[in-house]
Amino acid sequence: MTRLLSLALLPLIMLSCTCTSNRESAPMLIALSFDDGPNDVTTPQVLDILEEFQVPASFFVIGQNINDDTAKQMTRAISLGCEIQNHSFTHGFMTQMSKEQIEEEIRKTDEIIEKYTGTRPWMFRPPFIDVNPAMHEAIGHTFICGVGCFDWEPQRSAQERYDILMAAAKDGDILLLHDMTGNDDTVEALRMFIPEMKKRGYKFVTVSEMFNRKGISPSPHNGILYSNVLQTK
Length: 233
Ligand SMILES: [Zn+2]
Hints:
The protein contains 8 helices and 9 strands. It is an alpha/beta fold. The site of zinc ion (ZN) has 5 residues, from loops.
């Protein structure tokens, strides 16, 4: 009887072992994202580091920054496995705009990104993370925020930016950084951050890939502003 019971339970035990080992082997994921590009000064410095460490990232670009020259940074980013998403056309305070203005900000940026990359964005980062229900209603993109390190403040050193990111970063997080012209301290912080996170077992992915790998398909107009893809509200 005991032997029979053991045999009957064996497949269940094996299944449970398999599940446990799968869960243990799944890497922790983190997504780097950069706002306010593209430009010919700091965007290429960020891309150099991504290339050096062989990690992708998501770039949320401002439509009016895109021209024949800066677009080359976007195509290089894509060749490195990165993605390009929407950060509005003029980087204004969109909660003060009419529905038509909001829609134009999104459409014009989507169009110029698509013109140069062949891919239309599906995610949107609101300028200044300034949002209201009218924006969620007018924009069908998934809204992305992120975990930041005050890297728009010039007095924050590279070490301070690195320390803040290291203390905050966890599985599923979207990290919000800026590749605006002259943001050298963020470039330096990245040089420390990426290898240290790899050493701790994290895998870097784009925001899109993180949603995919976590099995999450955000529905449009869901009202969520994601800083971690596992968020439900
Ligand atoms: Zn911005």
